[in-house]
Amino acid sequence: xxxxxxxxxxxMGAVRxxxxxxxxxxxxxGEERAGLEDLLSWDAFVAALAKIQPGKAVGVDGFDAYxxxxxxxxxxxxxxxxxxxxxxxxxxxxxxxxxxAMLAMKPGEEPTNFERRRDLWLIPGSQKxxxxxxxxxxxxxxERNVPRSQAGFSARRNAGEQxxxxxxxxxxxxxxxxxxxRGYCDYGCFFMSVVHExxxxxxxxxKVRPEVTExxxxxxxxxxxxGMPGLKGKxxxxxxxxxxxxxxxxLGQGDLASPVRSKLLLAVVQRTVSKL
Length: 276
Hints:
single chain; alpha+beta; 5 strands; 45% helix; 8% strand
């Protein structure tokens, strides 16, 4: 757990120099930023809530956000009022930074090989619903910054266009009798390996609203002034839950904002490879 969740030393000067090379910093003096009002509006809440499905595992607080779909509208309005207050005060339930991981086996894998297990993290339902609302801003940032060649987790797009594009490229190479080379890179434990400081810098360059990034910071490294601890996790075993371990890096496997946040980071990798 220490190897997977432990912190990493990163030369942020080198990181910023790389980003300057591939994506110049246009954060200062850029477009005017609105507040969180539209992201946390009633319409945004209704749209996010409509995507909540029944039967999902709950986090340590035991709250199933699907209940908000079944409750009277006044309950949802009160939930939204409370969450807005949390964001404004940067004061969140400490339970939101306590995650539980189930180590699921992949088909055909050896049960005793824990390194091959997939960690499925259970996140408090209200936190997931808030993340879904904030993801709208990350989606807009991705539309502005992520190359079109990256179609994962994009509306009205899927892996089929990559498969078709690869097939057509292969056919063209055969017709023109030219070689074609394919390279594959698999990042192990990708979501849980991203260094926070690097991700914050990427989001700044991508013009993610600072207020949105601040929410994610609170839900990863905590808020000292409010006594909120950084993210901790416990692993589910046959003998019960392990002791809590510090999770000092990572986007968050299971967090609804992680896929699009990862795309912003991968866009830097894509541009670096292209320039090299």
